[in-house]
Amino acid sequence: MTRREFLARLPQRPDLAPGPIPPRPGGPPPDLAAALLEALAAGGCGVRRASTAGEALDAALVLAREAGVTRLGHHDLGPELTPLLPAAAKRVGIELVEAGDGDEQAVALAEPLAAGLTRPELAVAQLGALVHLARPGGGRLLSLMPPLHLALVHAGDILWSLDDLAARLDAPPDPPVDAWPALTLISGPSKTGDIEAVMVRGVHGPGRVEVVAWGWTAPANPLKDQALTGLAPRGNLAPS
Amino acid sequence: MTRLTPCADDRQRQALEGFTARLRAMHAQGLADPGLWDHLRARARNAKLTYLANPAPWLDLLAERLEGRGARVHFAVDAAEARDMVLGILQQAGARKVVKGKSMTCEEIALNPALEAAGVQVSETDLGEFIIQLAGEPPFHILGPAMHRDRGQVADLFAEKLGQRVPAEPEALTKLARATLRRRFLEADAGISGVNFAACREGALAIVTNEGNGRFVTSLPPLHIAVMGLEKPLPTLADLGATLELLTRAAIGAPLSTYSSWLAAPAGLSGAGGPRQLHLVVVDNGRSRILGGKFWEILLCLRCSSCLNFCPVYGLAGGHAYGSVYPGPMGSVLSCLLEDLAPGPDLAQASTLCGLCRQECPLGIDLPGLLLGLRQAGTEAAPAANLLPGLAAQVLSRRGLFDVVCRLAPAGIKVLEKLPEALRPPGPWREWRAGGRALPNAPGHPWLARQPREDGHD
Amino acid sequence: MNHLQPITPPPRASLFVTCLADALLHPVAQACRKVLRAQGVTVDLPPDQVCCGNSLHKTGQAGAAARVGAAWVRAFAQGGDIVSPSGSCVAHLRRNLAELLSGQPELARLAPQAATLVGRTYELTEYLQRRLGLTRLAGAKAPTRPWVYHPSCGLHRSLGEDQAPYALLEALPGRPRLELPRAERCCGFGGPFSVSHPELSGALLGDKLAAAAAAGAQVLVVGDLGCLLHLSTGAQARESGMQVVHISQVLAGEVV
Questions:
Q1: What is the Cβ-side half-sphere exposure of residue A37, based on CA atoms within 13 angstroms?
Q2: Which of A47, B71, B124, C52 has the most CB atoms at less than 10 Å from its CB?
Q3: Do B255 and A19 touch (CB under 8 A)?
C-alpha cells in the first residue's frame, strides 16, 4: 500500500488527551563524572578516574596488558589522546591496530582483536551510558566486536539526562541530528539470562567493559588510578 | 473452543515460577522510587496518547525524515503484505543469508517460514530465539523465549543441530552460540530487526538488546530491514528516551538495557560504518481497526512482560498454552483483536480478573476491563448462549423466585450427589467438583426469610 | 474519632447481604449485622434485595446484568447508607451499574437514581473505618488459633480498599496476624472462572491453602465472599483442616 493510502486509513482519537506530568525528582549533582562512573559500575562496568588524558590512557593500557592483550584496536580518539597514544602503547608493549568505523577493512581488522579502545563522544550520567555516534573514524565497531572494551571519557563530554542528550543532538555546534545517522548507548557488558536465568556475560558484545574518566575539578588529592567501584571482570578473553 | 489449563510439565512450571519470580523482584526494584515512577509513567503515557490521538501526521513526519536521509519506508496493511515486502527487498538485493534480532512483530506476521520457503537462510541471533529456532518451538515468554529448556536440553540440542558437544553449563553453551553466530553475522547479506520505539520529529528508530545482537544485526550487514507495528512511534526523541527508561525499569529493574541503537539513516552511506540500505516496514495487521474502537488501550503496551510475570494464570499455564505469539494478559487481549491470530483457547474467559496486571502495568492499562469488553463482544455475537444467563437474571432479580430456588437447593444437591457420574446432568456443579471443591451446604432457606425487617422488631 | 457522640442520632444502615450470603453463607450475613449493631448502628434489611448483577456482568452478559442491577436499585431505593460484606459487589456497583443501566433503553431512566444510591454504598470494612471512623471495634477479637488474612482481589484491587481491612485486623485484641506468603496472588475463584477453568481455579486454590499452611495458620480469613465459598469447599474436599472464614466473622468476634 502507498504511504498516502495507508495514512488515510488511520483514525483520529481526539478523546485521548494527555495529562499533567509530575516533575522528575532529583537533579544533576555537581560532579557528573562521579555520577556517571557510579551508574556504569552498577551496570557491571569496571570504572576508574584520572586527572589527565595521559593518566587515563596509561590506566587503560595497563588494564589491557594485565588482561594479556598484545594487539589493541583503536580509532580516532580525539586531539587530547591521539598524540599520546603511540608512546603510551610502546611503554606497555602493546601493538596498535587502527580500525575506525567506515574503514573498508575495519571489520576484518577488528574481528581477531582481544580488546578495543574507544573514546565515546558523549555520556549520560543519570542512567550510566556511554554514547558512540556513528561517524567516519568512530568507535562503534571496536566497542562491539572484541571481548574487552576500554572506554576513555572526558568529563566535559558528560551530559546529565537523556533529555539533555536529545537536546544536544539537535543543537549546534555539534552535528545537528540531520547529520548523525546513528548512535549507540552502552550501559554495561553484554549479558543474557536466557539459559535457566543464569547470567552469562559476553554473549555477542564484550563481556568486560572498563571505563576511565578524566578531567575533573580535583580536590587536594585526586584518586589517581584508583577503582571507585567495579565488579570482578568476567567474560571471554582470548589473548591475541 | 478449548480452555487454558496448567502446564503439564512440572519441571517447566517450576522453571517458569523461578523465572517470573526473579522478574517480579527486578520489577519491584524498578518501581522503588515512586516519584520517579509517576514521572516516567506520565511522560510515556502522554507521549503515546499524543501519537495515537492523531497518528497519520506523525507517521508521515517519521517517513519524511527517514527518507530524506536515504532510508526507504514501506507500508503493509496486513501480515501477507508485510511478508511480501520483506521478501521483495531481500530478493532485489540478492540477499540469501539473513541474521535476525528478536521481534514479536516479525513472529506475529509469521515472517521466518515465508523467508525460508523462498530459499532465504534465517538465523535468529538472540540466544533464547536461537535455541527455540533450533528446537522448532514457539517462544515461552516474551523476554526469555527459551526459559522452559534446561541446560541439559540445550546442550543436547546444540550437539544435534550444530554438531558440537560442549559441557552442559550456561557459560560453555553461550560461548558456542556466540562463536556460531559471530560467523553468521560476518557472512550475512541482510539484517532484520523489530523496532522498540520510533521518534517522529527527529526521524529515528530505537532497537534495544542486552546481548548486543541488535547492534550486529543493524550495523554489520549491508542491508537492514526494520519491521514495526504502527503503534510504536512517539512524537520526539525526548519522549523516546523517557519511554525506554520506563520499559526497562518495568521489565528488568534497570534504567537502560545494555545496548540501545538509535538509527536515523543508513550509516554506511556517509562512511560511518553500517548498512548502505535501511528499510522500515510499517505494519497495520488490525492495529488501525483497534485504534478506532473501544479496545484502543491495548496499543499502549510497551511489551515489558510485567503482566505476564504477575499473572496467576500465565504463571501456571506457561507461554505455549496460549496458542499465540503474545501470551499472558496483554496477549489474551491482543490475540483476540489482531488479524489472523485466532488462538486455540478462549483467552478472554481465561482470567479471574484479579487486577494484578493492571496494578503492575507501567502504563496502567485496564487489562481486566479490556478482557471484560471482549467477553461482552463474544456474548453479543452469540445470542443463543444467552438463554441460561437470561434465566439466571430472572431468578436474581425476583425475590420470590430466588426464595424458591433456595428452598429447592438442598434436595437438588442431594440428587446430584447421589447420581452416578455418567447420569449427572451437565452444569456448573461438575466443574465445581472438578476444581477440587465439595458441593456447598445449602441451608434450604434464604437467610433473609428468617430475619425481622428492622432492628427493634426482634 | 473512636466512639459515637451520644447526642448524634445513631447511624442507620441498610444491609445488602448479597445473593451468595443469603443463599449459602448465612454466618456472614449474621456476622455483618452483629458487628454493625455492636458499633451502635441500626440495621435494616430491605426485603426485596437479591443480587447486584456482578457475576452476570463478569460473564459478559450486559443486558442480564443490567436487569438484575435495576432490581437492586428498586430494592434499595429507600433509606440511607447501604453496607455490604462484598468488595467485589460494591466495586461492580460503583464502576458499572450506571453505565449498564444507561445501555438498556427501558432501564436508562434508572441510571441517575442508581448513581445516587451507589454514592452511599459501602463495603463493610470501608464503612466501619472510613465512614464511622472506627479502628478498634466493640466485640471484635482475633482468632485464638494461628491465622492469616487473604487480601481478596475484589476488595483490595477492584474496590481499591487496601487499608481498612488491615487497620481493623491490626487493632484486634489477642493473637496477632501471621504473614501470608504471596498474599496478593488470587485464590482462583474469579466468578465464572471458577467453573469455566476448573483446573486452573483448583490449582490456585491448592496454592492458597498451601501458603496459609506454610505460614503455620489454622484459620484463613478472607476479604470477600466468592473466596470464602471457593476456599472453604476446597479445604473441605481436601480434608485440610484449615478453617476458612470471612473478615466480618472475625470482626463480630465469632471466630474462636
A1: 25
A2: C52
A3: no
